[in-house]
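Take a record:
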Amino acid sequence: MKHFLMKRRYFEHGTYSTLHRQDGSQVCCIAERPMLNNQPSKSCIVEGTYTLFPHTSPRFGKCYALEEKTLGVTRTGPSLRTHILMHKANSPQDLEGCLAPGVDFGFVHGEWAVVNSTAAFNLLMKELGGKSAQLTIVKD
C-alpha cells in the first residue's frame, strides 16, 4: 500500500499543505478549510494517519474518501466527520471539510487557493491507481 505524507501550515483563512510520496518528492499542493476545532463542514480534519479509499460521490464523481475511525472520520458514519473527500476545488471556501489538490498555490478570486486543481487531481488519481493508500497529515 502506498503511503503519502501531507505537510500542513495553518492560517486564519485556510490550511495549506504539500503532499509527498514516500521518497520525499512532491505530488501536489492541498487546500483545506481553516482549523476550527474539527467542526464538521467548517474545519480541516485533525492531524493523523488516514486510509484513502476509492470513492464515487454523487456530486464529485470518482474521487477518494478519507477514513480513520479512531480520529472520528468515517466514509458514511456514524462518526464525528463523514464524507471527507479529496476532490477538485480551488479555494477553502469551495470546501465543506474536504481536501482540494492543486498544482501550486496562488490567488483565485482574490483569496489564497490552489491553482489548476483539475490537473493535480488527475495526477493524483493516476498516482493512486484506484487502490487504497495511507495518508499521514503533520504540521510542517
Q: What stands out?
A: Helices lie at 117-128. The radius of gyration is 13 Å.
